[in-house]
Amino acid sequence: MGVAINRSQINQANKEEIDLITSQFNALTAENDMKWMYLHPKQDEFNFEQADKLVELAAENDMFVVGHTLVWHSQLAPWVFKTAEGDTIDDAELTNRLKNHISTIVGKYKGKIEGWDVVNEALAEDGSYRKSAFFKIGGEGFIENAFRFAHEADPEAELYYNDYNLINADKRDGAIRIVKNLKSKGIKIDGVGVQAHWSLNEPSIEEIETAIEMYAATGVKVMFTELDITVLPSPWEKSTADISTRFENSPTMNPYPESLPDSVQTQLANRYADIFELFNKHSDKISRVTFWGLHDGLSWKNNFPIRGRTDYTLLFDRNMKPKKAYLAVIQTVED
Ligand code: G3I
What we know:
Layout: E1 2-5, H1 7-12, H2 15-24, E2 27-30, H3 36-39, H4 49-60, E3 64-71, H5 91-108, E4 115-120, H6 133-138, H7 141-153, E5 158-163, H8 169-184, E6 191-194, E7 197-199, H9 205-217, E8 221-230, H10 241-247, H11 262-281, E9 286-291, H12 324-334
Parallel strand pairs: 1-2, 1-9, 2-3, 3-4, 4-5, 5-6, 6-8, 7-8, 8-9
Helix pairs in contact: 5-7, 11-12
């Protein structure tokens, strides 16, 4: 069971917060601090200060560390695709830069970071490749290279493909294509990371179950890497009936600015219980579940898709007290 944490939590070293992290979870992901823009801001400059602190905290508490993430089109550094003259680099240079980036970082944390989100979000919603600069310059070869370089730098580390909406059939099939392609070329991939930024209604338990079975059938581990459940309206949600009820008194899209009504607390707890019952049923296929944040006050969902909302996505409230959802999850494990 993992949690994503950020630099302010580590740097403030609030005892209550650190105790909660280390007592409730046994895996850590950096919510931001291991992304390209932070670790490798300039071509000849790496900055490991914050990442080192997270790795240290994990080592002191015997926690598994997930490296998030080596190759992603977002939170990148501006130099990555440009030559000194300002032209766009070619495929050979992209390969050089990926090799340097990945070998340096994975090599530095060899034996300490035990699993890497090697490539993040390389798929479009229809399951084709996302037309990122990585893809435009390197084709699908950038994914193969990234996994190869990561494996060379730490042969023991687990290597994952990580993405959102991986329960949706088209994107799920795209991820399965990536796994099969890598395996057919003899390139190591150990797991698919399903991010799991979900809502009270979607995706359905049946859809999640189908995806777990299909990923596991390709011979990789399945992990839920960024779990949170929004209770607020989402522009992308298909089933709108329930949303309009929750929306009734809230033209600001902030229906519960002060606290979450008990009825919605219960809905959230039931949703988490359903999800964890399914996870328990497939515990032979699922190697990790990581929550995307420690408590509601820290959830990125407070700022997405609209800045400044008050969301209630996680197991602990803003005072770090366990919610009904926490008790529901614990109950599924005890059952
Ligand atoms: O570092 C700056 C800081 O200097 C500045 O004062 C502050 C003002 O807004 O912004 C800070 O940067 C923020 C950064 O997080 C670090 O805190 C960015 O604005 C903010 O957009 C960024 O959001 C992160 C987001 O990735 C960026 O895409 C979220 O915290 C993080 O939860 C989110 O995580 C991603 C996963 O990595 C991949 N999967 C989706 C997931 C949710 O988007």
